[in-house]
Amino acid sequence: MNEEEQQLNKVLMLFYFGYRTFTEKPDQIIEKYGIQRVHHRILYFIAQVPGITVNDLLSILEVTKQALNAPLRLLSEKNLIKMVQADYDKRYKLLYLTEQGKQLESKLSHVQREQMKTIFDSLGSNHQKAWIDVMNALAKVRPGQQQFNTQINKQRH
User: Fold this and answer.
1) Given phi > 0 = left and psi -120 to 50 = alpha, else beta, which region is 117?
2) For the chain, what is the largest distance between any 2 Cα atoms, rounded to a whole number of angstroms?
3) 66 partner at 20 to 30 Å CA-CA among 20, 117, 122, 128?
4) Domain containing 111 — which CATH number?
């Protein structure tokens, strides 16, 4: 293994452990609610795009309808989300966070924002920009990210 491969292996290892640190506190919080990380992702994206359709959420998360059905049902049963029939077409279900869902999602995102803020504050804005550039390079090929950007742009107009 050459020096470049060794350095890249270190990057992979750091990415793995960094992700574990990033998800650890939210995982501890959601465990108390009897839900898992997949539910956290769903709550996050519904919070970002209130009234998102199930189909658009499927596209953003890049999962099948079967993979999303049970987590959505559980979140609904736990009164964290509500599904509303669209006025414009009864075939579409729009997803919203309930008050309880908003509080939980806010708590989860706050923990992660604070983690990132603490790190960026200690390292400086040039490191934050570099990190954002790396994450953008990783995410730009994802159809889910493209769909998310489309949804956000719709909301702004």
Assistant:
1) alpha
2) 60
3) 20
4) 1.10.10.10
Is 68 in contact with 146 (CB distance < 8 Å)? Answer: no
Q: Which residues span the domain enclosing 58?
A: 3-156
The owner of tokens 């708590």 is 107
Q: Who contacts 10 (Cβ-Cβ below 8 Å, separation ≥6)?
A: none
pLDDT in tens, 109-155: 999 999 999 999 999 989 999 999 999 999 999 999 999 988 888 87
pTM above 0.90? Answer: yes
Alpha helices in the chain (DSSP H): 3-31, 37-48, 54-61, 65-77, 99-123, 125-139, 143-156
Instruction: Find the length of the chain.
Output: 157
Q: Which two tokens stand for residue 128?
A: 């934050």
- The total number of structural domains that make up the chain: 1
